[in-house]
Amino acid sequence: MKHTLSIIGTLLAITMAVPAQAQFAKPEDAIKYRKASFNVMAAHFGRVGAMANGRIPFDAKMAQENAEIAAVMAKLPWAAFGEGTDKGDTRAKPEIWKEAAKYKEASDKMQAEMAKLNTAAKAGNIDALKVAFGPAAASCKACHDVFRKD
Ligand code: ASC
Fold first, then answer.
1. 140 lines ligand 1 (CB under 6 A)
2. How far apart are CA 70 and CA 65, in angstroms?
3. For ligand 1, atom 6, which residue shows the shortest CA distance?
4. How far apart are CA 58 and CA 29, in angstroms?
5. pLDDT tens track for 112-135
């Protein structure tokens, strides 16, 4: 796991060093990328949620590993909402580009809540996890309600 995370860390460092526009050859590549990062985040966030909601037994190590991946993934999709990526195989609404400041605010909020969830998971107790999970899920939903087609 440590190894995986260090690879993720290295990839992230490379990703952040490259200007957003240069990362994707075609708009559909950007759309695929952002969907992939949301999907990976949702898979790991969902595992944390299953513990927070008592659907699976709490396992501190599993919570930590999954929350950490969700927090890293939360940083990734935003660079893939560049020009020309509003059309195609996407549920992204035009509001993302029309109300860019509002979208940025919502995405910052989600990243902050994922970071808090990650910190809570590191504390290793279920109560901290429960406290942090609700606001993190709400930050996902808030954005979907306004910026994503059903
Ligand atoms: C998840 C997930 C989302 C959010 C959202 C919260 O686990 O995949 O998109 O939580 O459903 O309301």
1. yes
2. 9
3. 137
4. 37
5. 999 999 999 999 999 999 999 999
Query: Cα of 49 to ligand 1 centre, how many Å?
Result: 9
Q: Which residues contact 134 (CB under 8 A, 6 or more apart)?
A: 52
Task: Decide: 143 in ligand 1 pocket, CB within 6 A.
Answer: no
Among protein residues, the one whose CA lies closest to atom 9 of ligand 1: 140
Ligand 1 in contact with 70 (CB < 6 A)?
Answer: no
pLDDT digits over 67-122, tens only? 999 999 999 999 999 999 999 999 999 999 999 999 999 999 999 999 999 999 99
Fold of 2-147: Four Helix Bundle (Hemerythrin (Met), subunit A) (1.20.120)
CA 73, CA 79: separation in Å to the nearest integer?
A: 12
